[in-house]
Amino acid sequence: MLFLGILLAAYAATWLVPRLRGRTSDQWRYALAAGMAVAGLSHLLDPTPFIQHLPVWVPARELLVFLSGIAEIALGAALLAPPPYRRLAGFALAAYLVAVFPGNIYVAVAGVEVDGQPGGLYAWLRLPLQAVFVWLALWTTRHGTPTVARPAAPVAAPATALRK
Questions:
Q1: Is 68:100 a contact under the CB 8 Å cutoff?
Q2: Are 44 and 105 in contact (CB under 8 A)?
Q3: Under 8 Å between Cβ of 97 and 130
C-alpha cells in the first residue's frame, strides 16, 4: 500500500506544478513514474521485504531483487520518454507488473511475514491493486504521439451568399 500512497501523493503534487498539469492521463503517468522510481530505490536500499516475496527455492533472490529494482527505476524513467516511445514503455511496465505478480500471490497464499507490512488480509488486499497498476501503465501511455489540434472543418457558405 506504500506504493499506492506514493502514487496518490505524486498525482496530487502534479496539481501544484503548473507545467505538469494537462491531460489527466499525463498527470497519472508522472505519478506512476515517481512511484516506480521510489519502489525501485526501495528494492536497492532495503531489499529484505522484497526478498521475502520470493520462495526460498528461487535461486539468487538477492540478485533478482537488485535487478528488479534497477528495472523499476528504468521503467519509471521510460514513462517520461518522448511520445513515440511511451506506448512501448507502458507495455513493458504492464508486462513487468504481470511478471512480478506471482510473488504477491505467494505472499498471500503462503501467509509469508514480510518486514514492514501488516499480516493477515493485507497481502490479499494488495492483489487486486496490481490489476489497477497494470491498467494505469497502459492507460497513461495510450497516446503514443502528442495531441495535435486538428483544423476545424470548413464551414459551408450560406445558400443566400452563393446567389449574389
A1: yes
A2: no
A3: yes
pTM here is 0.82
DSSP 8-state class, residue 20: G
pLDDT in tens, the chain (164 residues): 678 888 888 988 888 887 777 788 899 999 999 999 999 999 999 999 999 999 999 999 999 999 999 999 999 999 999 988 999 999 999 999 999 999 999 999 999 999 988 888 999 999 999 999 999 999 999 975 544 444 455 555 555 555 55
For cell 498525482, what's the residue? 11
- Cα separation values, 117 from 9, 39, 51, 105, Å: 20, 15, 13, 15
Total domains present in the chain: 1
**Cell, residue 10:** 505524486
Q: Do the Cβ atoms of 50 and 3 come closer than 8 Å? A: no
20-49 as b/e, with b when 16 or more CB fall inside 10 Å?
eeeeeebbbbbbbbbbbbbbbebbeeebeb
